[in-house]
Design brief:
The complex is a heterodimer.
Chain A (H helix, E strand, L loop, with lengths): L7 E6 L3 H10 L8 E6 L7 H10 L3 E6 L10 H18 L7 E5 L5 H18 L5 H13 L10
Parallel strand pairs in A: 1-2, 1-3, 3-4
Helix pairs in contact in A: 1-4
Chain B lengths: L2 E6 L3 H4 L4 H9 L4 E7 L5 H13 L4 E6 L2 H14 L7 E5 L1 H5 L5 H19 L9 E2 L5 E4 L3 H12 L4 E4 L22 H13 L4 E4 L2 E9 L2 E8 L23 E2 L8 E2 L2 E2 L11 E2 L14 H5 L12 E7 L1 E4 L4 E2 L15 E3 H8 L19 E8 L14 H15 L4 E6 L9 H6 L7 E5 L7 E3 L5 E5 L7 E5 L1 E6 L1 E2 L4 H8 L26 E3 L9 H18 L6 E2 L5 E3 L9 H5 L5 E4 L4 E4 L9 H5 L5 E3 L4 H11 L3
Parallel strand pairs in B: 1-2, 1-3, 3-4, 6-7, 6-16, 7-8, 16-27, 18-25, 19-20, 19-25, 20-21
Antiparallel strand pairs in B: 5-28, 9-10, 10-15, 11-12, 13-14, 17-26, 22-23, 23-24, 29-32, 30-31
Classes of the chains: A alpha/beta, B alpha/beta.
The structure holds FE2/S2 (inorganic) cluster.
């Protein structure tokens, strides 16, 4: 069996963190092979449901990366992201998802090296935790049905 | 669905890291894919032609391009799609170079990653929507707020090329603070002589409307289509009738200190702020005027030969449609009373600004430097950096104080041949090509005594009544004391009063130092995060006259290039949309929209999007509890499709 390589889904905003990931490439830094990016215009676009879906579909961890507070291209999208992340974190801990699996980090366009470091840390943590078993998330889906709201559950069709 | 994939080798950049042959055969088997092609460099003219051909020959309905980052060539390939007759938004880019090949360390796993990225893009692109590039008409007219150096510059340059400009000034006269200065550094020219041609130009252009005693009340809309409301205070003088003959001043029996000259002279209730102020039309100060205080006084009205006095004028709200707004509201002076140990407010303790008025030939003393009791001062002490570079007050360097203080010292040496001048300072800030010269001019001057301190803490201005002393602690605790007949403080510049309200009105941010936040401090210091709103002068940070003139010109330039008469404005195609049938009217999204692009339609009972304002950030979509709000190029369906494939092996 090959060694466990955690899959990390990243939601990256176009203006800072996605640019940093491009910068990591231009500088030939190494990002974990399991790191796969969904580009969004702003971290404020990221729905908590997407994070749950990513975990359900096979991710071992999720990172939401946005511009530093005050630097959001759309002024305050990242503040919304932060608020939503707080709600999401509570839900995730209810579901028994370890908090190391889902993170919100601010990365500016020039912080490619920092991005590399953050992702290597995430990878190391996930390697310690092992693959995500998704057991808890089934419960999550049930919960979502009870709440009936998309903001806490899986994506709508 | 007919999906085509173009795999770019990017020379050796991608092909040497990722096995594109095996990726090609993998991709060919994906659902919906009817074509997979590979080419060394798709962004080259030949490569672009290949894509056009590929789309046409295979009658493609969707395109996936795998190569460099979308930040590099998304626009290029959108144009290619358009050329091939396909809607440019039916494209998804796979970032195979920057975020896959270039960050790779393990070839086997990189291959797995490339396949996942490609699968996700193919799934996603199926749900892409053809988006429409909408255009709206735009008004080329401009509102300039503030008629100091920066605002005058913007207004006159725009008007000279035929733009209709509304120049709004809160004070009764134009020219800003600088017009009150006797000489300006470094060349020591007279400021009003420099500015008068500009002020004349601005006051006499047909396409330039000057509104004094006016402030901005409300702003709606966006670049090209702002509707602004301006509040105009009554002058009680009919500007169309008054010739500025000054006949009305004499009969007025009221006399109060003139706030426009720091209270150093007196004025009537019908007055102009200072000699030579423009427009040359007085105003009536309703607070002090006897007529308004309920007395039977009509003296000015009786004497006016032109019947220009009009007590019935009311405050007015005037509406204008403009395409752009320039904020040039200047600065305020830091209040030296916040450091009571410096004694500001007592006799013979002045700010540099007060000194400008004493020094001015048209000022209260006719340009003579005198103490309050009329003596010529024998010892003048300048204290620099008052409030500046002080974490408790204004932490930044105000940039102009060193230079203007040196300028004032030059002037005082000439006017007071007997006096000694002490300068209490910490560092010199004399940048630029002529700043240092101003300082070097004193190298052999025995009448100037320099007191360079480690810091500005602990300075005290003591005594009064001809017995002023300036004292400061020394590094060895000895300290020093010098006698002073006149003390001149150089206060910090600070953001203009009312700036937070203005920022709120426009939905703009202030920086932690309180000045207006620019789009980019280095590359776009004259623009703001709101398209169509520009900055000029000290509203963005302390500046001298020259820099304010430059930024005023820059704002005009930005408007000339960004708002062209007759040209329509292109809207963001990837804007938000609200599905009316799903919207429950909860209005959660409305308060979160950073661009105020959402509003509630009471007739329909749902939220509606103003596409002219929407920038497509998607905050509304992420917030909507019923799935009615969507970001067109980042719909929940598109992202869900992407996620279905991305996390797999
Ligand atoms: S654009 Fe980066 S967080 Fe909003």
């Amino acid at each position: 069996m090959t060694e466990f390589e955690p899959k990390i889904i990243g939601f990256l905003c176009n203006f800072c963190s996605y640019a940093a990931a491009d910068g990591a490439g231009s500088q030939r830094l190494h990002l974990p092979e399991g790191f796969r990016v969904v580009r969004v215009m702003c971290s404020g676009r990221v729905e908590p449901a997407w994070v749950l879906q990513a975990l359900r579909e096979g991710a071992d961890g999720v990172v939401i990366l946005g511009c530093h507070p005050g630097d959001c291209h759309y002024r305050e999208g990242n503040f919304q992201a932060r608020k939503r992340f707080q709600i999401l974190s509570r839900l995730l801990s209810d579901l028994g998802v370890e908090k190391e699996r889902v993170r919100l980090v601010w990365v500016s366009a020039t912080e490619a090296a920092r991005l590399e470091k953050v992702l290597q840390e995430v990878r190391a943590d996930l390697k310690l935790l092992g693959p995500f078993t998704r057991k808890g998330l089934k419960a999550g889906q049930r919960k979502e049905a009870e709440h009936g709201g998309k903001t806490t559950g899986c994506p709508r069709d | 669905m007919r999906i085509g994939i173009f795999l770019c080798e990017c020379g050796p950049n991608i092909s040497e890291v990722i096995d594109l042959n095996s990726l090609q055969s993998f991709a060919a088997a994906l659902p919906g894919v009817v074509m997979v092609e590979k080419y060394p460099l798709y962004c080259s003219p030949d490569g672009q032609e290949k894509v056009v051909q590929g789309i046409r020959d295979n009658r493609l309905e969707r395109v996936v391009f795998a190569g460099c980052s979308p930040r590099e060539h998304e626009e290029t390939f959108r144009r290619v799609l358009t050329r091939a007759g396909l809607n440019p938004y039916l494209l998804q880019i796979v970032n195979l170079r920057e975020q896959c090949a270039w960050v790779a360390s393990d070839p086997a796993r990189t291959g797995v990653k490339a396949r996942a990225l490609l699968r996700a893009a193919v799934r996603r692109v199926e749900f892409h929507l053809p988006l429409e590039q909408k255009e709206i008409p735009a008004v080329p007219d401009v509102l300039v707020l503030g008629a100091g150096v920066a605002g005058l510059q913007t207004a006159r340059l725009l008007a000279a090329k035929g733009r209709k400009v509304t120049l709004v000034e809160k004070q009764p006269s134009i020219g800003g603070k600088v017009v009150l200065f006797e000489e300006v550094f470094p060349g020591l020219e007279c400021a009003s002589c420099l500015l008068e041609p500009w002020m004349d130009e601005v006051l006499h252009r047909e396409n330039l409307e000057v509104m004094t005693l006016s402030t901005l009340e409300e702003v709606k809309g966006s670049l090209g289509n702002f509707i602004v409301k301006i509040k105009k205070q009554p002058r009680f003088i009919d500007e169309t009738k008054c010739l500025g003959c000054a006949a009305c001043y004499d009969p007025c029996t009221v006399e109060v200190p003139n706030e426009y000259e720091g209270g150093k002279s007196r004025r009537k209730a019908v007055f102009v702020p200072y000699v030579g102020s423009l427009p040359n039309i007085p105003s009536i100060d309703r607070k002090n005027c006897l007529h308004f205080r309920g007395q039977e006084c009509n003296l000015c009205r009786e004497v006016c030969p032109f019947g220009a006095i009009d007590f019935s004028q009311k405050e007015e709200i005037v509406e204008r449609r403009v395409g752009a707004i320039v904020l040039a509201t200047g600065y305020s002076l830091w209040d030296c009373r916040k450091m009571p140990e410096l004694g500001y407010g007592r006799e013979d303790i002045l700010t540099g600004f007060d000194l400008e008025r004493l020094n001015s030939a048209t000022g209260p003393t006719g340009g003579q430097i005198r103490c309050a009791d009329g003596r010529a001062p024998g010892s003048v002490v300048f204290i620099l950096c008052v409030g500046s570079r002080d974490p408790e007050h204004r932490s930044y360097c105000s940039k102009v104080c060193c230079l203007y203080s040196l300028k004032q010292i030059h002037s005082l040496l000439k006017k007071l041949p007997e006096a000694t001048i002490h300068v209490v300072f910490r560092d010199w800030c004399l940048p630029g090509k002529s700043g240092q010269e101003l300082r070097d001019g004193f190298n052999n001057e025995k009448r100037v005594v320099w007191h360079r301190l480690e810091g500005m803490k602990g300075i005290r201005v003591e005594g009064g009544n001809r017995q002023i002393k300036v004292a400061w602690p020394g590094p060895d605790r000895t300290g020093s004391v010098v006698p002073a007949d006149l003390v001149i403080l150089a206060p910090a510049l600070e953001p203009p009063a009312g700036l937070p309200e203005l920022a709120r009105m426009l939905n703009l941010k202030l920086k932690p130092d309180g000045y207006m936040q620019e789009e980019s401090e280095k590359l776009a210091p004259g623009a703001t995060t709101l398209k169509g709103v520009y900055l000029a002068g000290c509203v963005q940070g302390p500046k001298d006259m020259q820099e304010s003139a430059q930024q005023g010109a820059a704002a005009a330039g930005l408007i000339f290039s960004g708002l062209i008469p007759g040209e329509r404005l292109r809207l963001e195609p990837a804007s938000a949309l609200v599905a009316e049938e799903r919207c429950g009217g909860c209005r959660l999204c409305i308060s979160l929209c950073p661009y105020r692009a959402l509003s509630f339609s009471p007739e329909k009972g749902v939220t509606v999007v103003d596409e002219a304002l929407c920038q497509g950030c998607g905050v509304c979509a992420a917030t909507c509890p019923s799935g009615a709000a969507e970001a067109r190029q980042f719909t929940s369906r598109q992202i869900a499709a992407e996620l279905e494939e991305l996390a797999g092996d």
